Amino acid sequence: MGLEIFNTFILLLLVVAAVTSLWVKDLLVSAVVFGVYSFLMCLLWAEMGAVDVAFTEATVGAGISTVVMVATIFHLRRKSND
Amino acid sequence: MKLLSLIPVIAIGVLLLWAGQDFPKWGDVESPASKSPVSSHFIANTGVDTEVPNMVTAVLADYRGFDTMFETVVVFIAGMAVIAILRGSSVGRPRRKDHEVEAEPDLIVTNTVRLIVPVIQIFAFYVLAHGHVSPGGGFQGGVLMGASFILIALSWDLEKAMSRFPIERCLFVAAMGIVLYGGIGLLSMMLGGEFLDYAELEKILPVSREMARYHAMLGVEIGVGFTVASIMFVLYANLASEGRLKQGL
Questions:
Q1: Looking at chain B, which terminus has fewer C-beta neighbours within 10 angstroms, N or C?
Q2: Domain residue limits at A56
Q3: Which chain B residues have any C-beta within 8 angstroms of a chain A C-beta?
């Protein structure tokens, strides 16, 4: 029962994080929220017992790809009309 | 336009959710993945064949070694592509950014990083070398190692990190990683087996066939770790400085 609540909570947060990262105007915020999404995914995988995948997600998904995205966003100049 | 593109997105989302009902339940022992002869073969034989307790590493580095080798090559090519695209792309253009901040490296940040980087690097080696027994392996260890250099670049500047790990050395280490992986594969071929058939290495190692596979997997993981660590840093260094390899963010 406890796990059920945990899973539902994480899945709801995942949806919130996914929608937020699409919704926000600032790309920097979007990238950071995407990192949050990765960490939630990592929690979910760890809970399912796929610790190797969770580890990879935590290092690559949440760590490196957030840093790479932030590094790229810092060099963007063009403004979008959306 | 925004509303128009929303229609296919919602349509595909509904289709995916509808198709998702066919998935087996979480932890279902009757699901195709759990019932297939492939998974039961690995569960039954990994310990006998290779003496590696962590089944994931055994499948990744031994049974599916060819796949992992070219995954490493893909990482290497990604780094090469970023260098090829960015090098020289910003020559002559003035350096102008929206988020420009000029400041000295912060005292608290740099001293924290000074304390934390050795711990990260030792943990990276632990993850790399312990990938057989506990979760971890070449990719995770390599990424951690690369992240420690990125942390240095973030808290000081790119020059500081590149004085520790110059880009030329990065590329050399990355190529050596693949050479190490392919070399172990070729070595087992020369000793009479097939490509990446590590068990043949027992002829030059003073261990049994099973332990030869165990140790060869460690060698292969070290190769993966080399490539991943240096390519991660190369990616960051190039992206953060638009290929100039100066100053960074």
A1: N
A2: 2-73
A3: 2, 26-27, 54, 56-57, 96-99, 127, 135-137, 139-140, 143-144, 146-147, 150, 154, 232, 235-236, 239-240, 242, 249
Cα separation, B136 vs A56, whole angstroms: 8
CA angle B41, B42, B46 (to 5 degrees): 120
Question: Could you tell me if residue A32 is inside a domain?
Answer: yes
Structure confidence by residue, pLDDT tens digits, B153-165: 888 888 888 888 8
B30 versus B185: the higher-pLDDT residue is B185
ipTM above 0.85, yes or no: no
What is the domain count for chain A?
A: 1
Instruction: Work out the burial of residue A15: count CB atoms within 10 Å of its CB; fewer than 13 is exposed, 13-18 middle, 19 or more buried.
Output: exposed
pLDDT band at A81 (very low <50, low <70, confident <90, very high): low
Give a yes or no: residue A58 inside a domain.
yes
CB A68 within 8 A of CB B236: yes
The reported pTM is 0.84
